[in-house]
Design goal:
The complex is a heterotrimer of chains A (350), B (234) and C (289).
Chain A: H1 2-21, H2 25-48, H3 57-75, H4 79-103, H5 108-128, H6 130-133, H7 159-182, H8 184-194, H9 196-201, H10 206-232, H11 237-240, H12 243-256, H13 263-282, H14 289-304, H15 308-325, H16 332-336, H17 345-348
Chain B: E1 2-10, E2 15-24, E3 29-33, H1 40-48, E4 55-60, E5 63-64, H2 70-76, E6 78-81, H3 93-100, H4 104-108, H5 110-120, H6 122-126, H7 137-149, E7 155-159, H8 167-182, E8 186-191, H9 194-200, E9 203-208, E10 211-217, H10 218-223, H11 225-232
Parallel strand pairs in B: 3-8, 3-9, 6-7, 7-8
Antiparallel strand pairs in B: 1-2, 1-4, 4-5, 9-10
Chain C: H1 2-36, H2 43-60, H3 65-88, H4 96-118, E1 131-134, E2 137-140, H5 141-163, H6 165-175, H7 187-209, H8 220-234, H9 239-259, H10 262-279
Antiparallel strand pairs in C: 1-2
Helix pairs in contact in C: 1-5, 1-7, 1-8, 1-9, 2-3, 2-4, 2-7, 2-8, 3-7, 5-6, 5-7, 6-7, 8-9, 9-10
The chains are: A mainly alpha (350), B alpha/beta (234), C mainly alpha (289).
Subcellular location (chain A): Cell membrane
Keywords (chain A): Cell membrane, Membrane, Transmembrane, Transmembrane helix
Protein name (chain A): Branched-chain amino acid ABC transporter permease
Chain lengths: 350, 234, 289
């Protein structure tokens, strides 16, 4: 028990210490990428785990990135103010799309398709307003001072700073995930995902609960987009918005595990390392290969391992503990019930 | 003709039928009566292959039904009129009847079968282009039975044909069953309307809580004290 | 004023022509959803594959266009059946959302397979059809042809669904799949046939689109979302609703494009979609329950 409660702190300390002892830019770059995308994927899973499968998160991410960059370049508004505006915009859009969906009980397929259209809209608007956004060629926030860090412009040239920022944001994302996990809303949302009418009958305000989690998820995703934009200093419609990005999020979460807090992070590590490996081994010929492998893996995962890698591992561990706890005095099995993974009740009787 | 031996069946979570043995002979009309939830509908579904038996054997004219894919059972000559009719409500009467003649052997004789069904139910001929879901309950029941007859079955399974119908119509439905069997068709019928159904059939089985409680000829059951008290309200 | 009227009329006519093709796109998707209850997110990518097939058969291997088109329709039909067999069938009892996501994986796969195999270059089949000049209006012959072919295809599908046994079964299974065995229908076979027909319709759409657009691995993204919106607005699985919605969207795109360019026409169509979500969330022709 004590080992378990100390573990996150030890792991956190190690992660914080990394950039102080280790300065190699390339691995740091990969780690920053993993952290930012992990945060984005966690943001998606905050609502995705309740069966609210959105294919519109590419749109929210694009809004976070583009609104921040556009305000900085065209109005000169610092990202310190621009990011909140971007988050407001994403939240407002989530409300506009979410409200009719939830009010009129648009669920499942319909919800996925409506949100998919949202991704399409954002992508189309970015492309159509190419005079301002650079269209499909991409967009670069202007450097405050060339080659220098600037706190005001949220531009840093060193990877170490970015690593710490990304780490902080990622940890905050996990913290939010846990807050949701511990909240009353979680029970309401789980009830809703099981049976909406029954949940409504027991007094759950279905529309409100769904809207809250959707707005939270959208705002978090937009923040990931803004962060990505500030770090990369280059954004293009197909890297931060559109259907492909939405699917990429879903894919990573499914691979990692949708019902466990570190699932999206596991998904980000696996997918980014996979893409990076393919890129290095295929070189310039790699274009397309990473997504090819993603696509096949996604299908295989959904068919054979729908709980994801981390989710399935935890289930195996849980089952093993259950097996040992049958022996008298095996108190560990009881402790395992507190895990994030909710076991299938039918397993319990076995 | 149809023989069930120690059949057990159910759904994933619970077992609905235990150790059912019954038989239906050629040309007979047999009823299965019993209260709600006794497993009557499950029994019909097991025979027509919608549910697979977990135990026991089902044979139809010597063929093992447990080994026959559900969609091939119709071809052997078993037609099932399901509970609540289950018409294709947004299709026309004729389309519904066409579905009844889906299997290749019936397709070839579609015209004759259609005439046969229309002669049996002149009402359906008038309504052949009407959307099935817009007809009255009695007409829908005729359509459902007509659809089953399109496949030219040897055995007709009727599941609660009188449910949800007005008393006058119920009378018509039972008259119809009588007419169908006088045409030589073997009928296995599930009913809650015990009084009526026992007048139409030769024999009946009483199904309670997933098991067969009593069996006998209609006359015997009509005389039986327990049945009179429990089901006939006398 | 005079000139403006002509532009308006031209845009209206082009909208109708576009509507025919969009209606064809929606038809295939609606057919599959109505019967199998699965949304093929990768539907537009099947069309992309079909466009490549025609490009290679016609432009590179110099087959006559009708033959190339026929092969493409058959090939994409086979691809649709294969998709069902490999991806959907193992997931028929899984959560619906898993089926949807699996076809999302197929979207990734097809897109990147095309990238790997053909590169990201834009390719044009190089078919130059004349532009008709009717009463000072310019109407593209390719669009007229696409419109006509789309209408013919829809009539054929309609006849198939109403006049054949398997077509009747396809309509029936959408209403009540559980009792299909009682009719002697093997649902798996009906699903298979439906998937093949849906795929063939995507192949036909590819044939018509290749006359007007360049092929590249991401071409599906330019008409995938609009197709999904049409289907949602028309009511998923509702073929008539999809037909009506297709023409409404096409007119919005075409007339909206009149004031700036076609891209803004699309943006306008998207905005219209969001507004309609408030007004008629269950689709244009929703059944009142």
């Amino acid at each position: 028990m004590t080992m378990r409660s100390y573990f996150p702190w030890v792991a956190g300390a190690v992660l914080v210490a990394v950039p102080f002892v280790y300065h190699s830019p390339y691995p740091l770059h990969i780690m920053i990428q993993i952290l930012i995308w992990s945060f984005a994927y966690t943001s998606w899973s905050v609502m995705g785990r309740f069966g609210l499968v959105s294919l519109g998160h590419g749109g929210f991410m694009g809004i976070g990135a583009y609104v921040t960059a556009l305000l900085w370049n065209h109005v000169g508004l610092s990202p310190w103010l621009g990011i909140p505006v971007a988050l407001l915009a994403a939240g407002a859009l989530a409300l506009i799309v979410g409200w009719p969906c939830f009010r009129f009980r648009i669920t499942g397929h319909y919800f996925a398709l409506v949100t998919l259209a949202l991704s399409g809209i954002v992508l189309q608007v970015i492309t159509a307003t190419r005079d301002y956004t650079g269209g499909s060629l991409g967009y670069t926030p202007e450097r405050h001072k060339a080659g220098e860090s600037a706190l005001l412009a949220l531009q840093f040239t060193d990877k170490e700073t970015w690593y710490l920022i990304a780490l902080g944001v990622w940890a905050a994302g996990l913290y939010i995930w846990h807050l949701v996990d511990r909240s009353m809303s979680r029970y309401a949302l789980e009830a809703i995902s099981e049976d909406e009418d029954a949940a409504a009958a027991t007094g759950v305000n279905v529309t409100k609960e769904k809207l809250r989690i959707t707005v939270l998820s959208a705002v978090m995703t937009a923040f990931a987009g803004a962060l990505y934009c500030q770090y990369q200093m280059f954004i293009s419609p197909d890297t931060v918005s559109g259907i492909s990005v939405s699917l990429q999020m879903v894919f990573a979460v499914v691979v990692g595990g949708i019902y466990v807090s570190l699932g999206p992070t596991a998904g980000a590590i696996i997918t980014l390392l996979l893409a990076e490996t393919l890129r290095i081994s295929f070189g310039t010929k790699a274009v397309g290969w990473d997504n090819l492998v993603y696509g096949v893996l996604l299908v295989l995962f959904i068919i054979f391992l729908p709980k994801g890698i981390l989710g399935s591992l935890m289930e195996v561990r849980w089952l093993r503990r259950q097996a040992t706890s049958v022996i008298p005095g095996g108190s560990e099995g009881a402790a395992a019930n507190g895990d994030a993974l909710r076991p299938d009740p039918s397993l319990r009787s076995g | 003709m149809l023989e069930l031996k120690s059949v057990g069946a159910g759904y994933s979570a619970f077992q609905a039928l235990f150790d059912i043995s019954l038989d239906v002979r050629h040309g007979e009309a047999v009823a299965v009566i019993g209260p709600n939830g006794a497993g009557k509908t499950t029994l019909m579904r097991v025979i027509s292959g919608l549910i697979r038996p977990q135990k026991g054997a089902i044979a139809f004219e010597g063929r093992d039904l447990a080994l026959t894919p559900a969609h091939r059972i119709v071809e052997l000559g078993i037609a099932h009129v399901p509970e609540n009719r289950r018409l294709f409500a947004r299709m026309t009467v004729e389309d519904n009847l066409r579905m009844g003649a889906f299997m290749p052997a019936a397709r070839a004789r579609f015209r004759q079968r259609l005439d046969f069904v229309f002669d049996l139910f002149p009402r359906l001929r008038e309504r052949r282009d009407q959307i099935a879901g817009t007809m009255s309950g009695g007409e829908q029941q005729m359509c459902a039975i007509g659809r089953a007859l399109m496949s030219e079955p040897k055995l007709l399974l009727l599941d609660e044909p009188s449910a949800g119908l007005a008393p006058v119509i119920v009378q018509q439905v039972f008259d119809l069953v009588r007419r169908i069997r006088s045409g030589g068709l073997t009928v296995l019928i599930v009913e809650q309307n015990v009084q009526q159904v026992l007048k139409v059939v030769d024999r009946a089985y009483l199904l309670e809580a997933g098991g067969i409680r009593t069996a006998g000829t209609s006359a015997e059951l009509l005389e039986s004290k327990s049945i009179r008290e429990a089901y006939l309200g006398v | 004023m005079q000139i403006f009227d002509i532009y308006l009329l031209e845009a209206l006519i082009n909208g109708i022509l576009l509507g025919g093709v969009l209606a064809l796109l929606a038809l295939g998707l609606n057919l599959i959803f109505g019967v199998i209850d699965v949304v093929w997110i990768c539907y537009a990518e099947l069309i992309m594959i079909g466009m490549y097939a025609i490009y290679f058969l016609f432009t590179v291997y110099h087959l006559p266009f009708p033959l190339a088109a026929l092969i493409a329709v058959a090939a994409v039909g086979a691809l649709g059946a294969l998709l069902h067999y490999l991806v959907i069938e193992p997931l028929l009892n899984a959560a619906p959302i898993n089926q949807l996501l699996a076809t999302g994986g197929v979207l990734f796969f097809l897109q990147s397979a095309a990238t790997v195999a053909f590169g990201i270059d834009f390719r044009n089949a190089g078919i130059r059809l004349p532009v008709l000049n009717v009463a000072e209006m310019y109407i593209s012959y390719a669009r007229l042809l696409a419109f006509g072919a789309a209408l013919v295809a829809m009539v054929v599908v309609y006849l198939f669904l109403t006049r054949t046994y398997i077509g009747t079964a396809i309509r029936a299974i959408a209403q009540d799949r559980q009792i299909m065995p009682l009719m002697g229908v093997d649902s798996r076979r009906v699903y298979f046939v439906t998937s093949a027909v849906g795929g063939a319709l995507a192949g036909l759409a590819a044939t018509l689109l290749v006359l007007q657009y360049d092929v590249h691995p991401f071409v599906g993204l330019s008409f995938g979302p609009i197709t999904f919106m049409i289907c949602v607005l028309g009511g998923l699985g509702n073929m008539i609703g999809g037909f009506v919605a297709a023409f409404i969207f096409a007119e919005i795109i075409s007339l909206g494009g009149l004031y700036s360019d076609l891209e803004w026409g699309y943006v306008l169509a998207f905005a219209f979609f969001i507004v309609m979500m408030f007004v008629r969330p269950q689709g244009l022709l929703a059944r009142r329950s």
